[in-house]
Sequence to fold (648 residues):
Amino acid sequence: MSANDSICVLGLGLIGGSLLRAATAAGRVGFGYNRSPATVDEARDAGYDADADLDVVLTRAATQDALIVIATPVTALDPILGAIARHAPNCALTDVISVKAVVAQAVAEHGLSDRYVGGHPMAGTAESGWAATDPALFTGATWVVGTDDGVDPEVWQSVSALAGDVGAVVVPVATDDHDRAVAAISHLPHLTAAVTAAVGGGEGALALRLAAGSFRDGTRVAGTAVPLQRAMLEANAPALLITLSETIDRLTRARDELRDRGSVQVVADNGHRARLRYEEMAGDEPDPIVDVEIGAPGWTGDLRHQAHLGRVWRGAQTRSASPE
Amino acid sequence: MSANDSICVLGLGLIGGSLLRAATAAGRVGFGYNRSPATVDEARDAGYDADADLDVVLTRAATQDALIVIATPVTALDPILGAIARHAPNCALTDVISVKAVVAQAVAEHGLSDRYVGGHPMAGTAESGWAATDPALFTGATWVVGTDDGVDPEVWQSVSALAGDVGAVVVPVATDDHDRAVAAISHLPHLTAAVTAAVGGGEGALALRLAAGSFRDGTRVAGTAVPLQRAMLEANAPALLITLSETIDRLTRARDELRDRGSVQVVADNGHRARLRYEEMAGDEPDPIVDVEIGAPGWTGDLRHQAHLGRVWRGAQTRSASPE
Fold:
């Protein structure tokens, strides 16, 4: 595990830049790398420790035994991991990329699996780049921490502590479960937003002039930069295909219901019920995961089981929910 | 036309109640009807002139030559129109219902077409009822005013003046064009939101715990009361079926693109382009419709033509856009 609170953030876009800012605000020693000197200049102008030389940054991470956080697009992963393997192979390693199976595989190919625990903060906007960074981006967000069998408990705790320090709550999830869940609640909404926008836009200026709240909110994420959307969605193609097919099936049944019986009752009921369940969960303070000692036999399965019930990790808690 | 500024609002839910409040705030004499005495009490407690006796309200509308605004669900239309035909057949008549062909047909069946000009303010929230009313609901909204050939120019101006008084801009649209456009930019987004919510909800508590902005915004309108959604969408079934089929086709092509080429480029590009066009239109002050004299030969066609270019009616304007 990291012997200290240093973190090294690779990639200073919306997520990485916000993380560097939030972790620094939380009292951590943070430094970062970005490929673009312009972004490095923006970060430095804002008072942060940033550099465009990856080797230099990783050598420093190794010296300080920092926790390395990969915050680049998934498409940039391979050279980044190559450099880590060369310069800082013993550092604890995590990432904030929105898919997990592809990253875990790339990490394995570079021989870095032992020190890797994946992460994914469920936060973002349609904006991107350093200018969009916000140290409060993670406040109240959920932060997935990879919890497959065999992960290093010390790295797991180091990653979870970082998430907690920047205001997020930890959800321990296995790689495949993560990818399936985010296909449904993040990647699919990008596709339905895109198609909804395209259908409305196809009706021309008059229709767009009439567009109000349902169109505005329902198509918001279609405004995300296309390369970012492609990197995210295409890296999760297998899970997204399943969930996209289900969506097409549901819409087709809705069309049949409307055509044959003049009704949208089934589709509206199902959607309404799911939305209310979501609002209920979003409105309630989540229950904590209890009675799990990190590193004890079966700890990963215990965490995953409780996360499936909607609970979150807030550090070690006993059943009475009082801190140990 | 109405000889004065009186308006009679039938139905005091979100739209009707907000209209009564906004019109009163704009200095108009407004009074209203609601079937539910509880809602009438709420309106009265807030200082508004409301009654649960439809015959009494309509008799008063006839005496004052008020503009009657139907703000009930489309499913309640028939008895309302029957009462108007009995008690106030000579009043100017409009509505704020979200479909126009069905309303126009019902109005015709009650022999009220001569004094009717349809309307549809593009404003609303997922909330409903008097408690959700807001006198600022229409500020900056677009308000469709029915502009088929043959509509009465004086009633048309009366309806447009009301929309302007409550802060909206008028978009003159033919019945069929309206229904097709709102199918695409309002009714379809309800179905895509419903299906997106159902797919996410189907993944269980873990997935909903991970849901963030894309799911929250993309499924918001699925939270609208199901009876309201059904009344709105089912009354526009023919237009909605066309747009829903197009949506299924686009999603199916997206699935094929993802499965066969691992790419979401086409769907993401199309959605992104449409969303940016929408943002551009939503961000710009719309150009005014110019050089149309209401009631002059060809006025309805002239208005519709300019509305198709994205322009809005702000009262008579010459090409230089200075008020006449």
